[in-house]
Amino acid sequence: MGLDEELNKKWENATLANNFIFYKVMREYPNACKHLIEMLLKIKNGKMVFLQEEYINLDNEGKAIRLDVFVKDKNRLIDVEIQLKDTKELPERARYYQGLMDLDSLGKGESYKKLKDSHVIFICMENIFSAQKKDLPVYTFENMCREDKSVKLNDRTYKHFFIAPTCAKMIEDEEIRSFFEFLITNNPADNYTSELDSYVTYAKKNMQWRMEFMTWERMETYKYEEGFEDGDQNGRQNKAIETATNFLKEKISPEIIARCVGLPLEEVLKLEVELKK
Asked: In this structure, are residues 8 and 204 in contact, taking their beta carbons and an 8 Å threshold?
């Protein structure tokens, strides 16, 4: 099976549990995103605004996608991402995201008291805490004193990890449980999941999104860090050039390619010129 055929099949089989589909649905339907956040955090968050974060360029016109949802309301900054696999670095990523959120929250010269509450939410399709022999549906972390856990730092930073398979079995709230069952089975069981199901169907009919998905997946396939086998420096250099060439053929911008494969921009531009000959 060729790569294009494989990616087409992956797109046809994609559900809301796919991080690209999840991102597109949450961005396209703010009320669905707002409802999900309020449901998971048990809050009312008023007017919600989408914010920018990290981008992956898809073409030379500067169009881009991102695969986590970063929003704010009057009092909070919230980042939501769905995670298919345990990549072993989600705690560090949560820490990184909260640093970015704080930078966005505070203007130059403003008091630290102006910092908004920050929440990072990971919806995990695998139990990332299984190595610690824990099987909770939800893990919520905030900073507290190790010597006396009743003393909280009160820095208003929170990290939430929802473990989908366990949430689908153990969560008492019927609507939350139905949402996680939908993620796992793709079978809607109430009004909210039925709405989400219709949004996913619409998303998969969007040809522009399909193209973005295909390009994103190709970038993942060719990605420098994951594509390298152990070897000498010459082998790594050759692999970087091969990867950059594949990116250029997919019309991905040289600036993004240089960052992805670790080559100087000037070298990527030379490869681009060679391809046009």
From this structure: no
